[in-house]
Amino acid sequence: MNSGHIPTVELNNGVAMPRLGFGVFQVPNEETEAAVSEALRAGYRAIDTAKAYGNEPGVASALRASGVAREDLFVTTKLWNNDHGHDRALHAFDTSLRLLGLDYLDLYLIHWPAPSSDRYVETWRALVSLLAGGRVRAVGVSNFQPAHLRRIVAETGTVPSVNQVELHPYLQQAELRELHAELGVVTEAWSPLAKGGELLADPVVGEVARRHARTPAQVVLRWHLQLGNVVIPKSVTPARIRENLDVFGFALGEDDMAAIGTLDQGLRTGPDPDHFG
Ligand SMILES: NC(=O)C1=CN([C@@H]2O[C@H](COP(=O)(O)OP(=O)(O)OC[C@H]3O[C@@H](n4cnc5c(N)ncnc54)[C@H](OP(=O)(O)O)[C@@H]3O)[C@@H](O)[C@H]2O)C=CC1
Ligand SMILES: O=C(O)C(=O)[C@@H](O)[C@H](O)C(=O)CO
């Protein structure tokens, strides 16, 4: 793919994935075309949506209107908790692909392990069969804890390309990142800005930002990139959409990385994957 000036990471099946993409959680469908169009004009090429967001049609409209070649886009969507199970998963995939107006997807993820229904292994087998069918270029999981990851690998022998998890300076996920490195799974950070709240006003982040003459959001995104994470910040504000992409022209020093490294509080802004779904 030609991802412009956005660097890519090579997934475990050789597919190139942009290291920075655009998230659309909580963007109403009727506002999604405008937001994604703005992102594509700014230079983003990866879009992260989900069936549960209800905005796959809005993403489709923006992709269609953009004129960007399909092979230069990287589109991710996710299978929701009530679609676990082999047949339901295959059906959910077809529905998402149709709503996105695509004939193939770049990355399909199991959104949550939903351990109470205990069907994520069967669901994972369905995604592996979709991969073999050629209508998706890579498959992965989201919100999988170490035990969930180890189990699907042990029971199916197929390692997900990506695990998309909540990750930001207040929730640094060291254990999971180590396991990903051991297995060859790419770590993708959701809510990379911790939803834009307190973290961006944190004095430690503010001081690093001041030293680099950058914004707190840019410093946090840079911290992720230097840790090796893929990031998918969301914004519906055109200036922020551009700001969040402008993170490839500077680098944090070891002291900056260490300072941000002290901020871990194990703080989740979203549900606990062991007890959700
Ligand atoms: N797999 C999963 O379970 C989950 C996946 N995700 C994915 O991750 C993406 C990102 O996570 P999300 O929860 O949206 O949170 P983010 O951490 O991306 O933060 C988004 C919030 O930060 C604000 N913001 C964005 N950029 C800036 C900036 N430069 N300066 C100040 N504020 C800023 C936005 O405001 P505004 O829009 O008003 O500009 C918005 O309120 C989602 O959109 C979704 O695609 C998210 C949650 C769970
Ligand atoms: O945004 C997502 O992708 C999510 O899965 C979460 O928002 C999750 O659905 C949630 O926060 C439910 O309260």
From TrEMBL:
The record marks 78 as: Lowers pKa of active site Tyr. Keywords: NADP, Oxidoreductase. GO terms for molecular function: oxidoreductase activity, acting on the CH-OH group of donors, NAD or NADP as acceptor. Gene3D superfamilies: NADP-dependent oxidoreductase domain. The keyword NADP applies. Pfam families: Aldo_ket_red. The active site is at residue 53. Residues 23-262 form the NADP-dependent oxidoreductase domain. Substrate binds at residue 111. Belongs to the aldo/keto reductase family. This is Oxidoreductase. It comes from Actinophytocola xinjiangensis.
